[in-house]
């Protein structure tokens, strides 16, 4: 979850493996390319986190 001033603005759903806007202005002002990029970053973070949990 991403926050600005304590308000959630985006969320990565580990079940659907997609990043999604939580603030209306995020959804209205950012194109699909942005969300695809954030999704890719978060998918990689999820893989790394899973590997780190398995090796500890």
From TrEMBL:
Recorded hits in InterPro entries, A to Z, give:
MHC_I-like_Ag-recog, MHC_I-like_Ag-recog_sf, MHC_I/II-like_Ag-recog
Instruction: Extract the Gene3D superfamilies matched here.
Output: MHC class I-like antigen recognition-like
Every copy of the MHC class I-like antigen recognition-like domain together lies at 1-55
Species this protein is from = Chloroceryle aenea
Report the SUPFAM superfamilies cross-referenced here: MHC antigen-recognition domain
> What keywords does the record list, in alphabetical order?
Glycoprotein
A Pfam cross-reference name: MHC_I
Could you identify this protein by its name?
Answer: HA1F protein
């Amino acid at each position: 979850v991403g926050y600005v001033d304590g308000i959630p603005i985006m969320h990565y759903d580990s079940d659907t493996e997609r990043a999604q806007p939580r603030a209306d202005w995020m959804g209205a002002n950012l194109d699909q390319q942005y969300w695809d990029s954030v999704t890719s970053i978060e998918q990689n973070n999820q893989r790394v986190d899973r590997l780190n949990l398995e090796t500890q």
